[in-house]
Amino acid sequence: MTFKKIYKKMYGSEINHLKLSKSMQDFITSIFQHTFIQHAVLAGLLSSFACGITGTYVVVKKISYLGGGIAHAVMGGLGIAYFLGINPLLGALVFAIVAAVVIGLVKLKFHQNEDTVIGALWAMGMALGIIFAYLTPGYNVDLLSFLFGNILMVSRNSLHILVILDVVIFTIVFIFYHQFIYISFDEESARLRGIPVDFTYLMLLCLIALTIVILIQTVGLVLVIALLTLPASIANMFSRSITRMMFLAVIFSIFFTMSGLSLSFSLNMPSGALIIMVAGLSYLFAFAIRFLIRFLQMKNFGLKKSAIDK
Question: The whole model's pTM is what?
Fold first, then answer.
């Protein structure tokens, strides 16, 4: 939903005094005037912290496809939560954790290709979500907001849940920071060091599941993998350490989220889609800059080598 539609839904009138313009100053001013914009900004910041930290491990270990499976399996939890009349994020949280554990156990214990179980969970989760949405009395369920994101409709209760999930993520990363690094780069070396690789791997998948639940409210199930991986991928281009990569990924995530919100305010377009567009264009720009730098370095190296040969 756009700013105009949210405003009309919440206040029952057309937007008059809230002027949509291209001024960043107007957007900043509106943050202090309207609660729903404040909630959106806070949700964006909370999402950015989780996204930058967890996304770093996802990019380094190259397991974004696992995130996709977990994200779409969550749809079942959303549908059941709507049917039971509880907060949809709680249903999403349960299904995300279950999906993460199932995918991890299939790989670790049964030594099966996880692609098959990911596809099954992906399809079953979406199917369950649709079934329970249909069974919900009145069928006045708007699951589209979770498919494509609706950061402008974040409630105070949802913010509380996001804060708790962020704290849990920070705690897990603080405790398992080095273990996650070892299994991300070399699982065999981690085993030789006495690290419980299987348990740590499951913890990493649960960490990804928690982050996905947070990002659902920001950009939705369809776009969640992009926001989970793009900031960390850009940070990876300009980092040589995990800590620096995490820091840059968080900064980039905040920039993408706030830029998307500002553009949504100015253009009266969906926030989630604009956030991803900013992130995607930034990735292409960063890739081009990196390619240009490497090209110039190689060209300079070639000139120096020719001069030495002469």
Answer: 0.83
